[in-house]
Amino acid sequence: MSNQIKPQTLKGFRDFLPKEEVKRQYVVDKIRKIFELYGFDPLETPALEYAQTLLGKYGEESDKLLYLFEDRGGRKIGLRYDQTVPLARVIAQYYYDLPHPFKRYQIQPVWRAENPQKGRFREFLQCDIDTIGVGGIYADTEIITCVMAVMKTLGFKKAKMLINDRSFFKNLMPKFVTAIDKLEKIGTEGVIEELIEKGMDKDQAKRFIISIDKSKPTPLISSISKILRKNGLNENEDFEFSPSLARGLDYYTSTIFELRTSEYKSGSLGGGGRYDNLIMKFFGRKIEAVGFSFGFDRLLEAMQELQLIPQKTTSVFVLVTVFSDYYLNESLDLATKLRTAGINTDIYLNIDLSKQLKYADKKGIPYVVIIGPDEIKKNVVKLKNMKTGEQKETTQEKLIEILRNK
Asked: Which helix (H) or strand (E) holds 199?
């Protein structure tokens, strides 16, 4: 019997091969650039937290999705479910070492024990921004404005932020809010049925759904809308009041928002809101906080559907060929020059030109530089466009200029 181990990933978990990871990093780099443009600094937290840090912060249904276990020391621990609760723990733990207000972004994976399906995985990337220690509405509007700047940078034309006031649901038990959050997904009748199943009177459930439809913006939403307009966002085009928006997590306290686009029909691309009481669970006193999290997989899927990601399968821009051992040093010297000039360069150390060209083609490298005895004698190189097959001679100095302008 063979002892060979079958290579496979766990259900709901994925490997990202270079051609996929190149696209993911392209999007992450764009997001990171805008986050930093708005004054947010990077933060990383451990994958594992004490179970007591995570439990009781998200709501009963979400708690069921936590990955919880004991380590070898008998400590109860869990995998990070989101990045907001670990952030709250960080604020409490390092409060006197941090600047206030504290603005951070975090781009790391989270884990949820969900049933894997299209667009849903058990390990996935989140891209968060949060502002801690600022009350009022200016931090809320800065977060929304920053997110919309990200969407514009990524190329979306019809992105819109839906905004609501969570205090509208303040007299409702969290289990009912969770049901209302499903209004778009399962419809009015489905939500009424779930509200009844969770203990709400039938007539009360119907009246409440009707009252949601007739709701008008609260003073909070009106004030936020006014500032967003001053920030250059257009009401009904870039943002709008959405009275049915609930956001299912328990820690939200007032402003809530969710990112949508009519160009993508498979759900929201992210969401967030204000959570002024969460840090108090760790610190003992109220500290204002507001944030947003991109659902990275849906964002990436939407961008691929809309062809907003360059069709690159490698970060390498040019391959320098090696004609023979005798001319290896010339190839290595040229590769060094290109790298020093900031051009992503690969070199294939196999003395077989056809294999080198096949390698460049399979990897998706757009350009190949051929430097053989004839080229060296004439003090030139040949630049080959792998897409068109076109070749042209140039000097090494001009080669750098040509590649920089591609």
From this structure: none
Q: Decide: 272 and 257 in contact? Cβ < 8 Å.
A: yes
Among 366, 356, 354, residue whose Cα is nearest residue 402: 366
253, two tokens: 């306290």
Beta strands in 305-365 (DSSP E): 318-320, 345-347
Query: For 35-67, b where at least 16 C-beta lie within 10 A, e where not — what string?
Result: beebebeebeeebbbebebbbebbbeebbeebb
Give Rg (Cα) of the chain: 27
In the beta sheet, which residues pair with residue 164?
A: 256
Distance of CA 401 to the CA centre of its chain: 34
Q: What percent of the chain has pLDDT over 70?
A: 98
- Which stretch of DSSP H or E encloses residue 338? helix 328-340
Digit-coded pLDDT (tens) for 7-37:
999 999 999 999 999 999 999 999 999 999 9
DSSP 248-276: S-TT--SEEEEEEETT--S--SEEEEE-T
As a dihedral over the C-alpha atoms of residue 329, residue 333, residue 334, residue 336, rounded to 10 degrees, the angle is 140
CATH numbers and ranges of domains, the chain: 18-305 (3.30.930.10), 318-404 (3.40.50.800)
* 253-284 per-position pLDDT tens digit: 899 999 999 999 888 999 999 999 999 999 99
